[in-house]
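Let's sit down with a protein and look at its sequence and fold side by side. We need material for that, and I hope you will provide a protein of your own picking. Once you have written the record down, we can walk along the chain together.

***
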Amino acid sequence: MTVDEPPLSQAEITAIAARIDRPIVLVGLMGVGKSSVGRRLATLLNLPFTDADDAIEEAAQMTISEIFAAHGEQDFRDGERRVIARLMEEDRGVIATGGGAFVNDETRALILDKGIAVWLDADLDTLVERVGRKDNRPLLRDGNPRDILARLKADREPAYAQAPIHVISVPGPHQRTINALLKAIDTWL
């Protein structure tokens, strides 16, 4: 989508929303905008929004960082899969997953089977700039964030590429990304 492309009309958005019969599940690396884009997308579609990481923290009564520190990544991924499965059964809303969720074979199969999987992607410079705004990313604590993100991007892209919808999250207003996402969902439906 180009910058000059007009946003979708409310009638077009309503028509797309009426065709959505399962959760829209946003996947991709940390920093691509799954939560911020997801919240706005859900509002536009008049659907509920859930950040899977928030739901995991609520269920565990611990932060993601505390879960990683106390139990390790594998236990976190097991709990993450259970929470995402529950969220997908509850509603047809918009779900933002953690960056590693879709890499897990079982979680990915569940999302592909029961949801509309959308891979939000971004270039490395955009990711580095966005994740630098917060210090709550356990995977970025042990090294240079740019190097870690580059490695994660290369390692995880084969899994993310299995999502049937791929949208680039661009710097600037989220509305540009949301318009591209809505058009991609409309085409996929």
Q: What stands out?
A: The chain has a mean pLDDT of 87.
